Amino acid sequence: MAGTVGIAGADRDHAVVRHVRSITLIRHGRTAYNAEGRLQGQSDIPLDDTGLWQVEQAGIALRHLYVDGAGQGRRQVVVSSDLTRARQSAHAFADPLHLEVHADERVRERNFGEWEGMTLHDIRERWPEDYAEWVEFRGGEMAHGAEDKRAVGARGVEALEDWAGRYGSDVDLFVFSHGAWISQTLQTLIGLSEVHPDFAGLMSMRNAHWARLIPLDRADGDGTVGAIRWRLAAFNMGPAIAQSTGWEDPRLP
């Protein structure tokens, strides 16, 4: 699946888009709210012990797959949601590489309004019709102050275009964020939201899993690059150990 990012301005016909070599979007590790089935949204909840272990494993896998064999001259840039759980996840990857983590509010999770902090069971019991509409992608959460999915996707794409355009093809961009943000940003970027305006085209990834985007240059008639198509090369990937039953309940010391 590929989506196109255009160029604004009068020089579109002769512009050359500067962009990173790849974008990897990583969901944070587990929190106590995740374990309890509570809706987090923009509530600032840290990782629990399992989540800290998960992001350690994810960091090892990400460095092995995309850094260790990248070759000379390749660099990594790390961006994170400003919420604690995402920043902790980012540092688990970045700190062994001595990389700075750039916090960006545009990468925050979707706001779920008055439902934040409530368990899914309690939401279903208190507002059964709205809950049913929410899980069926019919917008029942909007009556409770949730952020519009289109707005989430728009700010997400804005952030990705901004960071991807700051660097050249010697840079791999790693963005640590949240389940709904990643899903809605990806669907907006690659055009799935035009096919599925209810944003039902992609579900949320597992904790400490990632998606990967690869740019495909599109040449204009004169041979210059006029836009970038981003291809979704991987979705919901994780460390090999995540396939075991111990991923959600590891035997931690």
TrEMBL record:
Q: What is this protein called?
A: Phosphoglycerate mutase
Q: Name one GO molecular function term.
A: phosphatase activity
Which positions bind substrate? 27-34, 85
Which source organism does the UniProt entry give? Answer: Bifidobacterium simiarum
Q: Which GO terms describe its cellular component?
A: cytoplasm
Q: Which domain of life is it from?
A: Bacteria
Q: Known InterPro entries for this protein?
A: His_Pase_superF_clade-1, His_PPase_superfam, PGM_Phosphatase
Q: Which SMART domains match?
A: PGAM
Cross-referenced PANTHER family: BROAD-SPECIFICITY PHOSPHATASE YOR283W-RELATED, HISTIDINE PHOSPHATASE FAMILY PROTEIN-RELATED
Show which residues constitute the signal peptide.
Answer: none
Give TM regions. none
